[in-house]
Fold these 2 entries.
Entry 1:
Amino acid sequence: MSLPKAILEKIKDAPDWVKEYLKDVPEEITAVTWGEDIEIEFPEEDTFPKLLIKQAKVRGNDTALREKEFGIWQTITYKQFLDNVKKFSLGLISLGFEEGDKLVLIGDNRPEWMYTYLGTESALGIPLGLYQDNLPEQLLPLINNSKARWIYCEDQEQTDKIIRILDQLGEVEKIIVEDWTGMWRYREDPRLKDKLVSFREVQRLGEELLKKKPNLFEENVNSQNKKDLACFVTSSGTTGIPKLVMLRYESMLFMGLGMQKVVPMGPKDDYYSFLPFAWIGEQMMAFSCGLTAGFRINFYEEPETVWRDFREVGPTIMFAAPRIWRDIVAHIQVKIADTGWLRRKIFESCMKIGYKKVDLEFKGQPIPILLKFAHKLAYWFVFRWVLDKVGLKRMRHCFTGGAQVSIDDFRFLRAMGVNIKQIYGQSEIAGISVLHRDDEVDPWTAGKPLPRTVVAITKSGEIISKSPAVMSGYYDRPHSKDVVNGWLYSGDYGMVNEKGHLICVDRMDHMITLTDGTKVAPQHIENMLKFSPYVREAWVLDDGRPYLCAILNIHPENVGKWAEDHNVPYTGYVDLSQKPEVIDLLEGIVRSVNERLPENMRIKKFMSLYKEFHADDDELTRTRKLRRDFLRKKYKPLIEALYSDAREVEFLGEVTYEDGTRDRVKIKMEIRWIE
Amino acid sequence: MNVLEAKDVSLRFGGVEALKGVSINLKPNEILAIIGPNGAGKTALLNCICGFYKPQSGKIYFRGKDITNLPPHKRIEMGIGRTLQTPYMFHGTVYENIMVGYVVKNRSIWKNLTFKSMVEARRRAEELIDFVELEPYRDAIATGLPMGIRKRVELARVLMSDPDVLLLDEPTSGLSLDERRDMARYILELNEVWGKPIVLVEHEMYLVRDIAHRIIVLDSGVKIAEGSFEEIIKDQRVLEAYMGE
């Protein structure tokens, strides 16, 4: 493909590898940007198990993992880490695990999850992590598509899910259960007798095999190299059943090493692993970065104690989705609102200094020395103490990615002196491909590509990227057209600004084109609506229509509290969501958002939905993104009503009562017009 | 041999006869449920067994030994553990409340001050916190907690003294559906895995049907039926006691 003149002009002085990559770009591009020209050298140990062996050899007695157990932080050294992986891996082999077998992991973040993952890789198999809050019927297609014969379940809860779909699963060799609590009766079930095995039992078998064949583990590990498959990862699944992304060690390590070129990480860093391991973001931090940089990985005690343990650890590196940052910001806001008058005033005046500083930073202007000094004072005397309370005091680098972050949250955290940066990426490119550099943070962009990575925009506005981190393909869809000539089609709509930063606007197929030709990115408007504490979810409609409408989910706790404060009696979510007072409240929010939008992008009508969107009903993905196509089908009558003259609409909806029973009832919902 | 036996126990408060010659026996590894309408004497019977009340007549045996005249704290030392219908929380954290249970059985002050026994107690408390899933509440003040949590704290506290027999007084009253399920699982695990015989006083018929091995029905201080769930629901007197004449 010949390149347009403007692009040729731009890459005149570019390094050779950029020109090389652009030679086989599959279609015409309108913009391009690339990362630093730094050679990324692969270490001699080019797979995860090899890296673990090396770490155990070089710094065997250093802390690799920490887990809170029995109320005390227990330390696991690299030697013990390797020992556990080795025993598990050999145990799998003595149970009949063969080269190329797939193993599915379902469970909370625990050291055992990592042992199983690395143990599978060193037994020459392929691990696949799935979200632990998936329902059985959501797990079924994924397990079957992966052809996995081995399943690791963390506890009874996960095992029960597998048992429920056992008949529909293909051949299952063994179900490995880590926590045997509540499982003492399961062995009596004839269907399960030969299938269930405890994690400790697998390790015990491994110990026996180790005595017989002491070199088997090393032989297996050394037979692999960076071109071999490291793992399967699920794609985000906004459009249907998540696809299975095949990633090689090369991709994973390239991404991890490339990231460390711009964000230095080392053995002194603490990482806190609390987002699902099934998410590529968590795997890339724990494995791609963790095993190369050698930082400590900390695990929570129970899912309920995540934030308490987070504070105790005080991590120095963190990567989380925007919803986590929203929670942290909301937590700080609520605590500040509850504190005494004097403290609140002090905090607010310090925030003013903070905002002044970050706004200059965002514009790329120099910061006056006095302001710098004032911010330092505010940080050391006020912010640091507040950050300590939420566990962010020691944070050196933290990232937000996976979805659009709210600009207001981003600004809030940066103003408090938290070094939060945006990143952009996807499972298909082993995690991330674009991130902010320390000195040029801009809330409207995702930053620059990683070293040795090229990102371009096609004529239709789609973001495409090329680097050694790009996946080898989808396991369950071998003929997909997402990778052409090594260029990955992301399905995201974006642009590149004059500084070479990537701006990711929204998913390509989510972009709304109104009848007058206006292009709207719904996620942007939805984020503006969601910044209000009273709106939990927002869904902006719709492609091919004359104007925009919105369907809103109220935030049950916050709106409930508001209703109590304003003497509005209600019974449950359904009732609360349809109270005229509540709809008035929402109207105010929509109006204030409209004021900040251009005339043709304003919301003309909205309604408050009788239920919350939920991942269990397939309305959201497990990372809380709207599944728009599904929603469009499910709520078709509502959309029709929004674009008619109706002032209210009846819908036969499913309702879940407090005691868990479900029922279908006709619900009347008001359509509020904003003149 | 019976672990626990009550023979012809009668208890009177002035003119009110709470128990009229009730006999029960608890076999090893058994869950025995005691059911009956309000005021039938279920809790009174438990109180006689653990020594809060002294019956006017009748004998109570624990492992074949007559304990009728022993004070309550001696009985706990021997290995009878009991929970209350409304758990009593001491002022302090959940963790401290559970630790109290250790002192009840290991009463030597000097021994309790040694490092070894402190480590042992702490380990045991943490194992029980893990068992009843109280990790998020470890350092919370116990008195303000919801009923479901307090019941779990109390169970852990009783287990701290490592009892040989557990007397549970309405362990699921005031709990939500999920909490009741959890409690049923703890009781089953205590019985089947830890091997503890359990006497269960309960109102919840489904729970009794699902987990009890044997059921005794009391009405107005008299034992009116005994047997499996299927047997007792066919019993005419049981139906009358529950449904009215």
Note: Strands of chain B lie at 4-13, 16-26, 31-35, 57-62, 65-66, 80-83, 165-169, 198-201, 214-219, 222-227.
Entry 2:
Amino acid sequence: MSGDAFNEEVDDLALGDALRRMAGPLPDADAALPGLHRRVRVARMRRVSAVAASVAIVAVTGTAIGLSAGRGSDRIGPSDTPSTLPTDSTAGDGSGTDNPDNTPGYGTGGGSTPGGTTASTSPGAGTVPSTRPGSGSVPSGSSTTTTIDDDSDDGGSDDHGGGSDDSGEAGEGREDSNRTSTTTATSVSRRCTSAAGAFTAVFNGTTSATVVSPAAGYSVHEVEEEGDSAKVVFRKGESEVVLEARWTGSLFVCDTSA
Amino acid sequence: MIGEPHDRIADTVRPDLESLFRAHYGRLVRALTAVSGSEEAAADAVQEAFVKAHQKWRTIGQYDDPVGWIRRVAINRLRDGHRSNTRKERALVRLAASTDETYEQPETELADGATETERLAAALSGLPKQQRLSLALFYLEGLSVAETAAALELSEGAVKYHLHQGRERLRGVLAVGGDR
């Protein structure tokens, strides 16, 4: 059949009339209009809800990311409340890690004894052989220089129930952060470290020594707490090393003497 | 405050879209009712198409023929609904087969005393979809061949072919009715 035949048939009035009769009267648009308004309103509400939900998801995600970031920083500086106090002006900015817990007796896991198998790599390591890389050693010719260490040199794990000493190996890179005190409203604490051992000095009215950790081969010979000073004597054979923390009124100063 | 919701309703739809709705809703629904066999489904499809137009009116309002866009959306929605219903019917058939129950297909045969309208409706529902749509848009909505082709996204030749085929089938129904 040709296209013309199609065109001739298009105007089939009888069929058109029959179809229109079959279809009935036109639906009333005015009657349907309120339904359209309702649908538009519902669609608008859905869209607003969807936008609100998206905003909420973004907000929750942002909060979660923020919290995660906060936790991440907690790992670096675990305690939010303490503020850091530089021990001396030459010791760097004091930023970085602090004792994660300032209350006396923190680190209930007890500092683990360093392995003692690694020789010190610190330049100028002197009379007392270091067994803890990164935790420092007594410089040659000096019996008064003290390295103040943070608890990460005890593996950073004292407050987690004891762990490895591995993190102490990174101590050299964090030497500045070692020279800090940690302060809370009620107490100040500081980790004092020497080649013979370490302890945490806490001042909360009186000075005390906690978490005493002798180095490999050393033992704790004596702990003396008196006034503003806490003193620990480490002994290895005939050799004795005295590590002392003195409270100056605002911060601790750690001294060692062989 | 009782009248407030009504006032809000009155402000919901854009005036220009509302005038289009008043002008075209009836014929659109009637044409699609003939295609789908359900005025409810046709009205739903047309109203949803207008809702979509309202949501995108900034774009749709710029078109030369916004009603053409609305018509296409309504047709597509009706097709989607038809596909969904077909799937449901097939699922029912499968379910009946699996439970050894007899699933009765919708009755399409007409009684001897059926009117011309009933026979025509039955014959229309038996036509292929494109033929039904072409006939409905051309005869019931009053579109030209070109407009019908645009609505169905077909060529004009294809629309003429579908119109021709559909007319042949329906004329047969009318002729039979006239002989009685």
Note: Chain A touches chain B through 36 residues (CB under 8 Å).
